[in-house]
Amino acid sequence: MLHAVMLRRGLLTWVSRVGGLLVLLCCSLSLLYLMTCSPPHSNNPPLSHVLPHAGSNRPTGPSYQMLLQEREEQHRLYISSLKKEISQLKEDLQERSLQLKKVQETLKTASNGPAERQDWGTETQGEGFGEVQGAKSQQSDLQEFLRTQLSKAEVTTGTRLPNEYAVVPFESFTLQRVYQLEMGLTRHPEEKPVRKDKRDELGEVLEMALHSLNTPSSQQDNRVPLEKAQTSKVYTPSDFVEGMTRTERDKGTLYELTFRGEASHEFRRLVLFRPFGPLLKVKNERMDTTNILINFIVPLSRRADKFKQFMHNFREVCVRQDGRVHLTVVYFGKEQMSEVRSTLENISREVNFKNYTLLQLDEEFSRGRGLDVGARAWKGGNVLLFFCDVDIYFTADFLNTCRLNAQPGKKVFYPVLFSQYNPTLIYGSPEHIPPVEQQLVMKKDTGFWRDFGFGMTCQYRSDFINIGGFDIDIKGWGGEDVHLYRKYLHSSLLVVRAPSRGLFHLWHEKHCADELPPDQYRMCMQSKAMNEASHGQLGMLFFRHEIEAHLRKQKQQNPKKT
């Protein structure tokens, strides 16, 4: 009885504290809402003082109106974000209220006397026993599943494989380095683990291995004499020699770690296995892309012939197959401007396409500046932007991928496109080069995944504006896309980075201007080298004189065969 009274007093105290906290939270939210939505009390003049009056000397041109519209849209988006946060907080308050209600009901039940509690306990005893049994059964099933995963993996015995391509290779690692085979273009044969998940993974494995070494099991204690057990060393990270790890994606990750033993030629080997659990359904949602318009933003300077090729692809895919697109071309300078305008007008008449905007800037070309101007020029509400170049080829499948992987306020999509090598080197001579549509083959000798490029991206205009847009001080080629990419990485938005089977970078000869700063010039030259050919093709070019000499020698030795 005394225990029940103390329990009731404790619960009443807890309920009163939680109620007070909820009241304080509601007051804070109301105050925050009033402070956000009310006019700012600062040294800045109010909006009525900023707007131009008759007879004043304040600017009234279109640029000033655009600035006001931009500010108004930013405030509207900010207020919308606050409303969403308040709505979420209200939902949390409702959830806490339900929890309080349940606690109050529990208190009432506890105060009804031992007789009723005894009746209630008798009724629920069977139910509670069933829940405990169910929890034990689930835990037993999970342990059995994990043991099955371990037995299926290649840990103690091998598996018969069809050929050398089916082998899952190991990666080796030390305290400071990881040595890997599957590098890609942004990874190195030897590197420090840059990604946090990789560092945490290897750190956890090493910590568990040291704990296991320094806490011997009872079975080990039975085998080892008492004298040796008392003098056994304490293992530290400095005793770690090397490790190996590999992942079978359907089973788990295997780790083999080697430590120095007590004697000079003695080692300790630990084998750890992280089994993958069963699949869990996280989300099942319906996604309707019917009304999602994509606004292509294309910066351009000269290159009228490439623009014709781009518009041929745009007409066939975007206009005739998809139909939910807008095209914004930002042109720098006046040279070849008439050809670009003529191409747009011809396509417009041919397929009755009116959803395009042509903007002209009489200034030096800057890709970041062009994309920024094109994105801000749209006044039709929040739209999905696709930053694109004229040497990009895309399919209708990519447009759907773009729509599905970008979400305003939540996700931006940075696809990895397949970059084409020089067709002249691939097919031997210009006469043997097939049409563009037939060149789009994803093979080792035809191209590579351009995972060092971040220029092509799908993101909503609201996210682009809120993140601050491009760094328009960057002139010429490269750099602006990486700055924008890093802004998103530093934000709370989810960055979706994945290879896209429907997005291609067509080969074109690259010219790196001498006036570029050293870092931009180095980036440009690296990109130029990557674009030319595969490792094997470049090797054949480098040794072509030696190969030709060998063929001539063979021809002289065997004249009859020729």
From TrEMBL:
Catalytic activities: 3-O-(beta-D-GlcA-(1->3)-beta-D-Gal-(1->3)-beta-D-Gal-(1->4)-beta-D-Xyl)-L-seryl-[protein] + UDP-N-acetyl-alpha-D-galactosamine = 3-O-(beta-D-GalNAc-(1->4)-beta-D-GlcA-(1->3)-beta-D-Gal-(1->3)-beta-D-Gal-(1->4)-beta-D-Xyl)-L-seryl-[protein] + UDP + H(+)
Under the heading Gene3D superfamilies, the entry gives: Spore Coat Polysaccharide Biosynthesis Protein SpsA, Chain A
Report the EC code(s) recorded for this entry.
2.4.1.-
Q: Where in the cell is it found?
A: Golgi apparatus, Golgi stack membrane
The UniProt entry lists membrane topology as: Single-pass type II membrane protein
Q: What is its main location?
A: Golgi
Region annotation Disordered: where it falls in the sequence: 108-129
Transmembrane intervals: 12-35
According to its UniProt entry, the protein's GO biological process terms are:
chondroitin sulfate proteoglycan biosynthetic process
Q: Which residues form a coiled coil?
A: 79-106
Keyword Metal-binding listed? The answer is: yes
**Which keywords does this chain's UniProt record carry?**
Coiled coil, Glycoprotein, Golgi apparatus, Membrane, Metal-binding, Signal-anchor, Transferase, Transmembrane, Transmembrane helix
A cellular component annotation (GO) from this entry:
Golgi cisterna membrane
Q: Which Pfam families match?
A: CHGN (PF05679)
Q: What class of enzyme is it?
A: transferase
Per its record, what are the GO molecular function terms? glucuronosyl-N-acetylgalactosaminyl-proteoglycan 4-beta-N-acetylgalactosaminyltransferase activity; glucuronylgalactosylproteoglycan 4-beta-N-acetylgalactosaminyltransferase activity; metal ion binding
The family classification in the record reads: Belongs to the chondroitin N-acetylgalactosaminyltransferase family.
Name of the molecule in the record:
Hexosyltransferase
The organism is: Cyprinodon variegatus (Sheepshead minnow)
